[in-house]
Design brief:
The complex is a heterodimer of chains A (319) and B (171).
Chain A (H helix, E strand, L loop, with lengths): L1 H14 L11 H14 L2 E9 L2 E12 L2 E8 L6 E5 L2 E6 L4 E6 L17 H4 E11 L2 E10 L6 E7 L5 E7 L5 E12 L18 E4 L1 E4 L7 E2 L7 E9 L7 E7 L4 E8 L8 E5 L2 E8 L2 E7 L3 H9 L2 E2 L3
Parallel strand pairs in A: 6-12
Antiparallel strand pairs in A: 1-2, 1-11, 2-3, 3-4, 4-5, 5-6, 7-8, 8-9, 9-10, 10-11, 13-15, 14-21, 15-16, 16-17, 17-20, 18-19, 19-20
Chain B lengths: L1 H8 L5 H13 L1 H17 L9 H9 L13 H5 L1 H9 L1 H10 L9 H8 L8 H5 L5 H11 L9 H10 L4
Helix pairs in contact in B: 1-3, 2-3, 7-10, 7-11
The chains are: A mainly beta (319), B mainly alpha (171).
Chain lengths: 319, 171
Amino acid sequence: MVVVRSTLMAVLLALLPAAAPAIADDGLALLNRIAQGSRVLTYSGTFVYRSGGKVDTSRIVRSMSNGVEVEKIEALDGSPREVFRVGSDVKCFFPEEKLLIIESRSKQREFPALLPTGLGSLPEHYAIRTGGLGRVAGVMSRAVLLEPRDELRYGHEFWMDVASGLLLKANLIGANGETLESFAFTQVKIGGPLEQDALKPGFDSDRVRVQRVRTIELKADDIGWTFRSLPGFRKVAAMKRQAAPDKPESVHVVFSDGLASISVFIESGGSVSEADTQATVGPVNVFRRQVGEHRVVVMGEVPALAVRRLGESMERKRK
Amino acid sequence: MKTRISALMDGELEGHEIADTLKELHRSEALRSEWCDCQLIGAALRDEPDLDIDVAARVMAALELEPTVIAPAHRRTDTWRRPILALAASAAGVAVVAWLALAPGSELAPAREPVLASARQVLAPVPAAAQTQSTPRLQEYLVAHQAYAPGGAMIGGARNIRTVAASGEGR
């Protein structure tokens, strides 16, 4: 039904005489501001993440100075896990294990051409509306609502600070209007200056075990698999990944419609007799399928139908 | 005709009926404004606050593929063409989240799945078999997936919260 209506709107659009200047607070423009705000702003605050009855509170400090991003996130519940990032250097610290995991990526490796159309193609897959004004973490915010135009994706509700464009709250909405996942600031300070030492890592790199993850970008020809395209989803990244030197390699291909994304992992192993399975982890749907000597795992914050359809369409490329 | 229009809006018409109704809409200014009214009523029913906006214009704007951008003057335009891209790169959750998978003790907590499944009516409960058979690398993949999900980039640093949260699982 949603599909019918979107087709209908497109046809209607074609039929209506060209007119109607774009509205200033058009939802898409607001989304662009959110995207921009997340990138350039300096802020600090406390954030709550909810998913399936699980609630986690964390503290974020983020700064953008001289073109370099520095970000520190620490868990406030349980052991004080910490993620520390400077530019493309990311360190994750797990205090209980005294383990520090590091990934450093060269600038050139950062998503060379992810979503060339940017947010521009979102209206093809979502009806975007601006919502009302409301307060989030004490800040006057404007809602932007995205309703999926088909059954291959979920809805989104974004609340942004009107002044800065910082995203303060984000909900993932299921087919029945239920909230599948929610991020929300409970307290936030937008703009600097930050407290002294706010961005200092809470661990000593010399006194922990260090582990590095390796990813190597894959060209389209080297993936070795074909996918029948899922409406609106495009391939945005492909890589070979290895979690640690003693772990097996797997191929990771990412598809996205601009908001929702689906990852496909291909690893060697598994037995041919294994049946396809479908599982759910929080808002993520997972589909597993055995194709010959390979095990395929497809997952994403999308309805079960979407991961299954993509997984079933996969075929080994003949060499 | 009024009924046809509201049926059209609700997506209840067959293909040929849609075409006919649209033709009518195209011909008649009065009908077009009625279509707007229908949209407004729908919006009112959905309790949307901004009812004063011309809906036809809003639809046009929403369907417009070139984003209307209120850009600060100093931003370069090529940055705007790919905002999500810029974000995804900056969010570097890319790298970040992958770590969780590797964290000791970050295996999936099996108890979570049935609870989640029953809380969400859309999905059938996860069969026990799916859990026991689930690849030991599922958690690692979940983390890698979240890292590369461009949508998460909208959330900026907040996505790394997911990382931090996920790493606490199963402890």
